[in-house]
Every structure is written in structure tokens, then in C-alpha cells.
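## retry 2 of 3
previous attempt timed out at serialization; input unchanged, resubmitting
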Amino acid sequence: MEDELERLKRQRRLELQRKLLKKQEQAKRPEEPSPREVLDRYFYGRAWEVYNAAQAQFPTLMPQIERALVEAMKGGRISDRIDGESLFRFLRRIGLPLRLQTTIRFKEHGELKTLEQKIQENK
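## retry succeeded, writing output
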């Protein structure tokens, strides 16, 4: 009975040591940034708006494109920051007919008005 108890204690101690070693190894390794964090370092302006529109319109293709962008950014092939227009042109160039919600606004007397408001005023 005592031998069995000693064996269980030894087994438990070994298991705890393995867990401790695993935690120490993970603490030593620098944590890999998430793909969103990597993209966030390079995206500015309206890039996230374009990216989210593409994600909504092409949910099956965007994960592949995201991986390719992140790899290029980590590998140094993309070094410049990316704005919305550049991302839009890139997505169009690779064959995604991306559609963005657009509104036309006029600035009149310091106030922004939509095209609809402008037409209603002129009636």
C-alpha cells in the first residue's frame, strides 16, 4: 500500500515538473503577434474600412489574402504603410471586384450635406 502511494506521489511530482518546464519554455519564447496586430502596424487611414468590406464580400478568400499579407510584412517584402486606396487597388489587381459604400457630400456654408439633402433643398 505504501509503495503504491509513493509511486502515485512520484508520478504526480513528475507531472508537475513537466508542466512547470512547459510554462518556462513558453515564457522564454517571445509571443508571436496575431495577424490583426501585424496588419494594424501597417494599415492606416481607411485601410481597415477597405479590409472589412473585402472580408464581408469575400469571406472564403480573405483569410488566404490575410496570411499572404502578414507573411510579406513579416518577411520584409512589404515595408511601407498601407492606406485604404492602396489596399483597394491591390485587391482589384488580384481580381477581387470589391465594392465600397460611397456617399457624395457637399460642403456648403461650413456644413456637410449629402447629395440627397442638396437635391431636396433645390426643389
